[in-house]
Amino acid sequence: MSAPVIVENFLQALYTGLVVGCIYGLMCVGLALIFSVMRVINFAQGEFLMLGMYAALFVFAQAGVGAMFGPGFGAVVASLLAGVVVFAIGALLYDVLLRPITGLSVAGTEGEGHYPQLTLTLGLSLVLANAGLILFGSTPQTIRTPLSATAWELAVTGDITLFLNKARTVACIVTLVVAFAVAMFINRSRHGKILRAAADNAEAATYMGIAVTRAYRLAFALGAGISAIAGGLVATYYPFQPYVGLEFIIVMYAGVVLGGMGSVMGAFWGGVTIGLVQQLSTLVLPQQLQNATIFVVFLLIILLRPQGLFGRNVERV
Amino acid sequence: MSNGYDRENPRLARTLALVALALAVYVGLAWLISDRYYQLIFTLILIWAVVGVAFNLFSGYSGLLSFGHAAFFGLGAYAVALLYIKLGISPWIGVVAAAAVGAIAGVVIGYPTFRLRGHYFALAMLAYPLVLLYLFQWLGYQEESLPMARQNPAAYMQFADTRIYILISAVLLGIAVAINLYIARSRFGLSLLAIKQNEPAAMAAGINPLRWKLLAIVLSASITAVAGGIYAVVQLIVTPESVFGVLVSSRALIVTLFGGIGTVAGPVAGALVLIPLGELLHVQLSHIVPGIQGVVLGIAIIAVVLLAPEGILPYVSRKMKRNSPEGGALSLTPEPYVREPAPVAIDGDGAILEVRGVSVRFGGLQALSNVTFDVKRGEILGIIGPNGAGKTTLFNIMNGFIAPSQGSVRFLGQELIGRPAYEICRAGVGRTFQIVRPFAALSVIRNVVVGAFAQQPDEEKAYEDAARALERVGLSSRARLLAGNLTMVELRLMELARALASAPKLLLLDETLAGLGASEVEHMLRAISAIRKQGVSIVIIEHTMHAMVRLADRLVVLDHGEAIATGDPASVVDLPHVVEAYLGKKWAARAEA
Amino acid sequence: MLKLDNVCVSYGGLHALQGVSIEVGQGQFVAIVGPNGAGKTTLFRAISGVVPLASGRIEYEGRALSDIPAADRPALGIAHVPEGRQVFRTLTVLENLEMGAQTPAARKAWPETRKRLFDLFPRLEERQAQFAGTLSGGEQQMVAVARGLASLPRVLMLDEPSMGLAPIIADQIFEQVERIHRDQGIAILLVEQRVGEALSACEHGYVLESGRIVLGGNHDALLADPRVKRAYLGA
Q: What residues in A contact B120, CB-CB < 8 Å?
């Protein structure tokens, strides 16, 4: 292969990696939010993603959002609305299923509190994925818009042209906006600070009059909704079916662990890194091993550097 | 079997006979079935029961939930399938190879992963089978079917009469259950349980957690792999999804959780209920409602976690026990210490423990600075000091849980710093813990024998040591009582006995008297004095001061990490800087005036 | 104003508090002293509603607290400055104080409250943008006390504010607490190991040992009583 081709492939992979990485980053933010506030490992996060995809599809096609706002913008609006829908679902699920096994009595206990949560969310994952199969059928879907299959051409030099897939690029931009909004919420808003306080020290938060259960519910619902928005965006360029959650859950966990479990924005950068690793690995490895690469990276991080690369190093009491 | 205290052991033979009978009945019933599909269900129930039992062997006893047992199942399945398909090796030999592959996988996966705590462990275990799934897909083993053996099919584990597979699986289950039953009562099982209850306490009792966890996962993985191999033979087709997929690990988990984790019968019961349910739903409804099996499994998991977290069987048996009269807590009639233990002469002179210049920092805080003192042979030394003075930190250093930044701790001339807690225990330093978490469902003597195993690998002798330890604290009459029925002071005495069972020369007691009433405190004091009379040196942290001034020969006072006074109790409590440390400058000043 | 009547609390099989009866009058300074493990922190946790009562009742301004969930008690005017400070380490000093002012009344009054708190603790104003986890022990204690005051409480409960602090710093904190009591008329319920300091500042005191009140009396009576020392040092 000639030099320009190699460079072109590399740049293309780099671009795709960054774009896809940002979307992964948003997914990871949802998961990290739930973990950092509630210390719950949510095995069902992939299913929230999936629900976001189907909700976005429904809103776009059935509810006419696509017709109302046009295909490009409509897909974006549909994703955001999907986030709202899954936010509500998340709040409901928290109240019914998670509240009994999280909350002040369990907050902060190592080991004891973990297994019921892990197991319950595993069960939830099974229920949601398979219920999805029953409700939506197994035919892969996408939110087909003219953007999905077209791309902008960027001529870098005479020999090197990059193809910037429109749907992915738009999705990436929306992701960045949403991620920024989340960061603002967590760092600047009153409820964001309440979430951080509850995450930091649930007992002290109670002494301040903070209803920790309400905070947990907000965190869970928000985490679900954020991942759902990412799902809705992914749906514009990636075919999905009810088991799609499984394909992304490991991406999300790898990103969260890489970013440092407990750091919400670190997870975003972790997701970006995973995206880059995935796309760049296609330069040297066969396509089918893409996912395996992520797993291997995930295992390596967990085994060698569990505290991650990007998290802030403030110790938790 | 001559072990008089271990009344449960003669039951082992009886239980095994019962299990064999139950399996025979099961196989007999199954023999009557002519429909192939139902025969298959009967076989699958057994196979998943084996996986559940194997999973339980590891996760139930160690407390480390493995979400990745599918890795072993799949490796076993592929081992048998590929050896037969590619090399023509009979599955009869294949399953032996599967067991070996499983064992090796257990070590390879266990060794790095056991270093991880809590949720990291769970996530890693989840990842392993999924990695293997992608790997096998990529390697091209999308769908491996086991071809028919033309000649002598039986030698290749192929039978026209599919009921034979039920028999094979039943034998496998019988073996798995027997192993489980045996281990549950043995040193292996008790060590795992101790690790599950409280890993630091187990280490202080001489148990090396890594060693036992590895043994457990190797055994568990091996059996799971064999089950996977049989599965491959029964299904005649192996795909990565069907043997490495999340449903496999979930089935292992839910079958065990449902029936009761940490029990032997649990996984079997779980399999009996859930597998037919899942399979029948799948067959009857999956063309209308695909994925119904997953939904039902998921709901079962959620229901168990929320409603009956210990599992259905334990839940039911607890409900039944509640209706029958309580096997009430016996009131404590103190064993006559009038039968004074024969005093043991102190051997050797010099200090038994020399603490020199111990300092340790945590983050910005100097927890201990330059602490120096001796523990004389045969004495009871009290370590006292206001809240936050560093007493527990000091114990944790003496015990091997923390390493100091400076200083040394020499026990009978050997340096203890740098050695792990279980080695220090075996060297002769015992320790009790403030929060006693007994094995409530096991007898007192079984709780105590865990300590004896540190020095005595032979089970019979260990039980004898445990019995002697119980005698020393006056708890012999409670030996066969279930630990869950003990009163608070009896629990503390049992904890003391557990520490004594490892025949320590130095005993570290951590707030043994906390929360006890006056007469209970008296009882403990007598027990502790009796132990000292038998030649054990004792260091005790206590806040119940009026007891300490009577019990201790000498006191070391810590304040803000420094040893501010040493001496006999009567004089130490009057020293102005000690009074100041506890009660504040103003009080001390007034006292002086 | 705050009354505990025969309160019993159990943890597992352990009786942490047995038959504890205490009264804090309007604007009074009450001290609770006692050796370690006596149950002092459990007492506060019971008042804050974080541990349930096995028996007995807690009354605040005539109302039984048993129906009021823990998160609603600060709104009534009960502030709890916990043992070991328990600041929100990953939040800044200012954010910590803001978290103290979460009740509706406190939120409205926040701008003035903030000024007042910074007057009381100028060091905190200097460090307002720093993460609380990076402050020294004494500064964290200031944050914890200020955070408690931010909710505009009527009774301020302080659990061992001097623990882990060098005596000089502890004295400074103590002076601030006394000043707050004098200037703002807030009732103070103070748990302390440093008996002399606690008893001299208080109007009324109790000695808690092994979960029971063994002595109670006014400040003069307790300071003269040798049984106080015995409760701590056994002799």
A: 257, 302, 306
